[in-house]
Amino acid sequence: MYRTLLFIGCGSFLGGISRYLLSRVIQNGTVTSFPLGTLIVNVLGCLAIGLLYGIFDHGGLLNSNLRLFLTVGFCGGFTTFSTFMNEDFLLLQDQNFFYFLLYTVLSLVLGLTATYLGHLAIKIL
Q1: Can you say whether the dihedral through the CA atoms of 117, 112, 39, 97 is positive or negative?
Q2: CA distances from 101 to 3, 32, 85, 87 (A)
Q3: Which residues, 6 or more positions from 10, have their beta carbon under 8 angstroms from its beta carbon?
Q4: pLDDT (tens digit, 9 = 90+) per residue, 16-68?
Q5: How far is CA 50 from CA 34, 53, 73, 88, in A?
Q6: Residue 37 in contact with residue 22, Cβ under 8 Å?
Q7: How much is the mean pLDDT over the chain?
Q8: What pLDDT is recorded for position 60?
Q9: What's the pLDDT tens digit per position in 64-108?
Q10: Host domain of residue 115
Q11: Chain CA centroid to CA 19, Å
């Protein structure tokens, strides 16, 4: 059990750092209050988890600790649903309804699409 928790914790650590760095690089390159960095990180995280579970569906390709490291750990630390919700709340609080709606719809549609494409890509391979 402790070994499993260590795998998840290490994955989460690396995913969280990766999320922060990529999100900041993207957001610092924009001049808008639209949370583009978080949106892109969430879509990439959805694509990654779709790819990973697509690989797992092929059976026996990764051991259970590596699966947990990559999905629960890394992808869980990399994707930012709580940050997404907070940024949505802040957009509403600032009465920026256009960006709120745009961000919410894009996050859900692109995230679901990226997850599907990840699964599909592995099935095609």
Answers
A1: positive
A2: 42, 16, 12, 12
A3: 69, 73
A4: 999 999 999 999 999 888 999 999 999 999 999 989 888 887 876 678 899 89
A5: 26, 5, 15, 24
A6: yes
A7: 92
A8: 66
A9: 899 899 999 999 999 978 789 989 999 999 999 999 999 999 999
A10: 2-124
A11: 8
Q: How many domains does the chain have?
A: 1
Prediction pTM value = 0.82
Q: Dump strand ranges (E) for the chain.
A: none
**Using a CB cutoff of 8 Å and minimum separation of 24, what contacts does 65-70 make?**
65/3, 65/4, 65/7, 66/7, 68/4, 68/7, 68/8, 68/11, 69/7, 69/8, 69/10, 69/11, 70/11
